[in-house]
Amino acid sequence: MSVKKSVSVLGLGSMGTALADALLMAGYRVTVWNRTPGRADGLVERGAHRAGSVSEAVAAGEVVIVCILDYADVGALLEQGGRTALKGRVVVNVTNGSPEEARAMAERVTALGAEYLDGGIMAVPEMIARPEAFVLYSGSCEAFETHRGVLDAFARSVYLGADPGLAPLNDLALLSGMYGMFGGFLHAAALVRSAGAPVAEFTSSLLAPWLRAMSGGLPEMAAQIDSGDYSVTGSPLAMQVSHDSIGDVSRAQGVSPELFAPLFALMKRRVADGHGAEGIAGVVELMHKHSAR
Ligand code: NDP
Fold first, then answer.
1. Ligand 1 atom closest to Cα of 120?
2. Which of 26, 46, 61, 198 is the most exposed place for a label (fewest CB within 10 A)?
3. In the 8-state DSSP scheme, what is residue 269?
């Protein structure tokens, strides 16, 4: 019978608790620590071992998962563990931070004698250990390959590369896409409600199928952004900005167009710059200049 690895979890908020539970369910020996010790009680009842200190927790786990609120506190927390306890461990930090913070943390943890992986959890706690969840990782490839079994207990594991900043960057890119969709949904919902119609029926029968259909065009737009060639389009930008129908009708209905207005302004600027015959993907050139072009 194979002996399952020992894994420690530091930080037992709603996400850390879900991660520790997933490890218990997968049969790992789990040691937990939380700044407010009482928060570990439920996990201990479910089979986890309670560590009395950070160093005890770090010493107990071949893999050390860190999931606390603020990235700024992670370094000091791990240093409480001490160099001796950390040596030879793999630290997987799934606390949300920036790419720069992740790179600095990788240096700090490596200097303490451990390997480092930064993680971005693309799920809410209730989705952990369910098929729709995934977690982005970047940093030590060897650590990822060696401990992939542990990480797969949380969700589908996606390794992005050796630069520790890749997981947080891609995490934020995914959230940007999500908030763009939420913004469009909120504007659509306000318009439909302004006409006295139920938003639920509109969303299930019209909006969700429409967004699914439109998302099918994203790979082609992405290819245009990669190539810098925006010439092929069935919907030229000049046509799309010829009237501000969305803004005008929204105002007439008493709906604020403030979510849509910034995108419309960029589309108009792109046309004014001489790209009216091209597709909407070219708007990205106003947001970020490609260094090779
Ligand atoms: P919670 O607010 O539920 O828990 C926060 C945890 O951080 C608690 O265990 C708290 O300890 C601990 N903590 C805060 N400050 C310190 C400190 N200085 N030293 C030690 N421990 C500290 O947050 P979540 O569990 O929801 O989130 C944790 C991380 O997971 C965040 O970075 C979040 O962005 C990320 N995440 C969360 C998601 C979610 O939907 N919840 C989704 C994806 C990522 P104490 O109990 O003592 O206060």
1. 44
2. 198
3. H
Residues 50, 138 within the same domain: yes
Cα–Cα distance for residue pair 64/74, rounded to 1 Å? 12
CB 101 within 8 A of CB 75: no
Q: Which residues have any ligand 1 atom within 6 Å of their CB?
A: 11-16, 34-36, 39, 67-70, 73, 77, 95-96, 121, 124-125
Please tell me the distance from the alpha carbon of residue 224 to that of residue 235, in angstroms, as a whole number: 14
pTM value > 0.70:
yes
Which atom of ligand 1 is nearest to 15's Cα?
Answer: 25
pLDDT value at 180 more than 70: yes
Residue among 136, 219, 207, 131 at smallest CA distance from 174: 136
Pairing state between β 134-139 and 115-122: antiparallel
Would you say 237 and 276 are in contact if contact means Cβ atoms under 8 Å apart?
Answer: yes
Model pLDDT for residues 25-55, shown as the tens digit of each residue: 999 999 999 999 999 999 999 999 999 999 9
Q: Are residues 23 and 113 in the same domain?
A: yes
135 alpha carbon – ligand 1 mean position (Å):
16
The count of structural domains within the chain is: 2
- CATH value at residue 237: 1.10.1040.10
The Cα 23–Cα 30 span in angstroms is: 7
